Amino acid sequence: MIWEFNFALFVFLVICAIAAISVRNLLSAVVILGVYSLIMAVLWAEMQAVDVSFTEAAVGAGITTILFVAALSRTTRGSKD
Question: The pTM is what?
Answer without folding.
Answer: 0.85
